[in-house]
């Protein structure tokens, strides 16, 4: 079952290695249009079928601006780190959301990941936390996954906690979530299949995905976003001061 690829089929379901190979081939033009629209607007609560199809996840990552951290250091002097306002101003594929919650204590919750490990938000106080809400039917969510994988590689677990929360619905069942993650073992952060009914506000009010909450080490909400975030901006948000 191991794959290095991320797929969402044209019917909104998961890639299944037992399916005929012809079902994973899309028209290049159609995929490009879907991804361009999806990356800008994200997926709303009503499932919108989209996704990305490739035979090589590294090619997918490169084509979406995901770079590893092995390039030689630049001789140019380091620029000042951008502020959150700078990052928000320069965003093109995502927008801030839940702004009324900024600076407030992030409501606590407990979820269990696909490996049966329990995660309680308050236990991660002292570290930055990124909560990323996604679904298997959401094209921009799938496009964002390689960026999150690379972020996990670049920032250690001692500084950053990443938790992928996938809300269950008829098109995003626990089985589909589990199968998707099993078929894509390059996902290097815990993923949950969670009912929104068990989550407190504001997390249970999410209407558009991908949606991310960045929580500062003091436990306060730093930023919430809706839409696909490229790796450089993800990293900048994590490192920026409030």
Written description of the protein model:
The chain is of the alpha+beta class. The protein has a single domain, classed as Glutaredoxin. It contains six helices and ten strands. It has helices at residues 28-41, 57-63, 84-90, 139-154, 174-183, 231-239; strands spanning 43-44, 94-96, 110-112, 118-120, 128-134, 160-167, 191-194, 208-209, 211-215, 221-227. The radius of gyration is 17 Å and the shape is globular. The protein starts with 27 loop residues before the first helix and ends with a helix. The model is unreliable at 1-37 and 46-59 (pLDDT under 50).
State the shape.
globular
> What's the structural domain tally?
1
List segments where confidence is low: pLDDT < 50 over at least 5 consecutive residues.
Answer: 1-37, 46-59
Radius of gyration: 17 Å
Q: Tags for this entry?
A:
two-stranded antiparallel sheet, 242 residues, 6 helices, disordered N terminus, six-stranded mixed sheet, 18% strand, alpha+beta
Give the arrangement of secondary structure elements:
Blueprint: H1 28-41, E1 43-44, H2 57-63, H3 84-90, E2 94-96, E3 110-112, E4 118-120, E5 128-134, H4 139-154, E6 160-167, H5 174-183, E7 191-194, E8 208-209, E9 211-215, E10 221-227, H6 231-239
Parallel strand pairs: 5-6, 6-7
Antiparallel strand pairs: 1-8, 2-10, 3-4, 5-9, 9-10
């Amino acid at each position: 079952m191991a794959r290095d690829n991320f797929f969402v089929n044209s019917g909104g379901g998961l890639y299944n290695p037992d399916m005929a190979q012809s079902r994973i081939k899309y028209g290049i033009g159609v995929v490009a249009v879907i991804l361009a629209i999806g990356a800008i607007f994200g997926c709303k609560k009503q499932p919108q079928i989209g996704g990305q199809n490739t035979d090589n996840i590294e090619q997918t990552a490169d084509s979406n601006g995901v770079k590893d951290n092995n390039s030689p250091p630049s001789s140019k002097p380091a620029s000042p780190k951008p502020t959150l306002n700078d990052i928000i101003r320069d965003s093109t594929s995502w927008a801030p959301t839940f702004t009324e919650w900024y600076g407030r204590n992030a409501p606590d919750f407990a979820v269990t990941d696909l490996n049966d490990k329990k995660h309680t938000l308050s236990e991660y106080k002292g570290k930055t936390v990124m909560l990323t809400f996604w679904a298997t039917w959401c094209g921009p969510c799938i496009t964002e996954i390689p960026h999150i994988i690379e972020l996990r590689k670049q920032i250690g677990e001692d500084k950053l906690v990443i938790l992928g929360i996938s809300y269950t619905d008829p098109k995003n069942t626990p089985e589909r979530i589990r199968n998707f993650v099993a078929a894509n073992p390059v996902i290097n952060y815990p993923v949950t299949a969670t009912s929104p009914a068990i989550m407190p506000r504001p997390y249970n009010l999410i209407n558009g995905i991908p949606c991310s909450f960045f929580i500062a080490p003091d436990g306060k909400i730093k930023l919430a976003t809706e839409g696909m975030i490229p790796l450089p901006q993800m990293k900048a948000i994590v490192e920026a001061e409030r």
